[in-house]
Amino acid sequence: MNLFTRSACSLVIATAFCSTALAAKTDITLGMALEPPNLDPTGGAAAAIDEVVYANIYEGLTRFGADGSVNPGLASSWLIEQEGKRYVFKLRTGVKYHDGADFTAADVKFSLDRARGEDSTNAQKGLFANIADVEVIDDATVAINLENPDGNLLFNLAWGDAIILDEASADSAATSPVGTGPFKFSNWVQGDRIEIERNPDYWGEAVALEKATFKFISDPTAAFAALMAGDVDAFPNYPAPENLPQLEADPRFSVVLGSTEGETILSMNNQSEALSDVRVRRAISHAIDRQAIIDGAMFGYGTPIGSHFAPHHPSYIDLTGNSEYNPEMARLLLKEAGLENDLTLSLKLPPPAYARRGGEIIAAQLREVGVETNIENVEWAQWLEQVFRGKDFDLTIVSHTEPMDIGIYARDDYYFQYNNPNFVGLMEAFNVETNPEQRDVMLKQAQTLISEDYVNGFLFQLAKTGVANTKIQGLWENQPTQANDLTGVSWTD
Predict the structure, then answer these.
(1) Mean of the pLDDT values across residues 337-346?
(2) Residue 341 buriedness (CB in 10 A; 0-12 / 13-18 / 19+)
(3) Chain center to CA of 432
(4) Is the CB of residue 378 less than 8 Å from the CB of residue 396?
(5) Strand 395-400 to strand 27-32: parallel, antiparallel, or no bridges (unpaired)?
(6) DSSP at 127
């Protein structure tokens, strides 16, 4: 072998080796602070469910885009008829579930009838209350007939609670989800991770990633250590904001600050003995220093709110003045209610840092005005059972991350048990109103009503503090819904 041949051969080998070595990665490990209690978004309220399955495993007729827009999903197009009382959807054809079953209009009817059924466990069952019936026209066409015109229907159908299931696999969705999405469920190691893999038979554009792992790390210190060690590639919702300046200075990472739909509130049980008195609820609201909570629990990341509405929404109004920090006013209101220095309330705190850290600060603030709290740290399963379903609490702290969900205040069976016929009537009128200007007026009225009723202690809008390897592209900057949508995520070389 002469020198030219040997050199050429070496060059070929080196080139092949380098191409392999420099090829972009096709797997990703995402950190999550919370493990989902199950994987069926139609049967559980935990945001962590959608953070794994939304747009990845499961799809709905419509879906949210990264900018919050409502886009086609399993429905390729639709017509609105009868002045908004009938929506006719044209479905995508050739779509198969991960187990090989065909997707048809019958699955849409099954899923929506199941979600609105009498025995439904859907956490957002109210989204479907206006549906009169679901009509299968043919395998690729389905109509949703409504009791009243509804300008929100396409928006509501984009929620994770409205994903489409195959009846044959619906009962096992909690542990072995079977959807139509670009990823298939692969493995769940309880307490550690969930793995999904690329669906080779996906009806749409193939995703770049071959595999994704959701790693559960609840401790903020451990989250930081996992990032630094490379055990996780990204933390879309990083749980330790105190570390962000250090991570921002590290060239290995990108830190992206965005917005979420997460209204963080001090939820109050409006039917408990003391909190049924609006003077007590108002006193608690005036005892809270929002900025101190944002600074102390979130290291300055968050926007104060005075009602259950996102500041980035066009219809938002600033009502923080209704419950401004005023300890003296809080004491006077408690005295007026006959509870001066004679009130002890339970405060049940789920795992997120905003709740645990914020709860300690709020407890100290309430103590200053004569309200004692019995703090109980609970895991998510306990919170869902005791607080959300059992309504066994006085106070709790949670971020409501569903998009534009002010309508939950019209549900008298909801966990904070606010029951105001005026608000219910306002939401019923809003749901059938199609004029954008009038809808804007109604949303502002709704914000004002719950703010002036002091239904809950409105704290702050949760910021999206994302941290990722600089070579990752396509993760959502903002969070218009509770999701880690991986359909556009890839690694650069």
Answers:
(1) 93
(2) exposed
(3) 25
(4) no
(5) unpaired
(6) G
What Rg, from alpha-carbon coordinates, does the chain have?
Answer: 25
Assess contact for 268 and 417: CB atoms under 8 A.
Answer: no
Domains of the chain from N-terminus onward: 27-33+177-258+464-491 (3.40.190.10), 47-170 (3.90.76.10), 261-462 (3.10.105.10)
Q: What is the pLDDT of residue 2?
A: 40
Q: Residue 383: is its pLDDT beyond 70? A: yes
Please tell me the distance from the alpha carbon of residue 390 to that of residue 269, in angstroms, as a whole number.
11
Measured CA to CA, the distance from residue 382 to residue 380 in angstroms comes to 5
Res 14: pLDDT: 47
Cα-Cα end-to-end distance for the chain: 35
| Token pair belonging to 310 | 């996102």
* Nearest residue to 201 (alpha-carbon basis) of 179, 186, 170: 179
C-beta neighbour count of 15 within 10 angstroms: 10
Rounded-to-integer distance, Cα 491 and Cα 493, Å = 7
Question: Rounded mean pLDDT of 270-276?
Answer: 96
Checking if the pLDDT of 193 tops 50, the result is yes
Residues paired with residue 145 on neighbouring β-strands, in sequence order: 86, 133
SS3 279: helix
β-partners of residue 259 are 463
Q: Are 144 and 86 in contact (CB under 8 A)?
A: yes
d(CA 29, CA 111): 31
Say what the pTM is: 0.84
Closest Cα to residue 479, out of 491, 460, 468, 463? 463
Distances (CA, A) of 274 to 26, 340, 365, 457: 55, 12, 18, 15
How far apart are the C-alpha atoms of 11 and 126, rounded to whole Å?
66
Q: Do residues 446 and 453 lie in contact, with contact meaning Cβ atoms separated by under 8 Å?
A: no
What contacts 24+ positions apart, CB below 8 Å, involve 221-226?
Answer: 223/31, 223/33, 226/31
Q: How far is CA 213 from CA 25, 209, 319, 464, in A?
A: 14, 11, 41, 20
Query: 140 exposed, middle or buried (CB, 10 Å; 0-12, 13-18, 19+)?
Result: middle
Question: Six-digit token pair at 93?
Answer: 């054809």
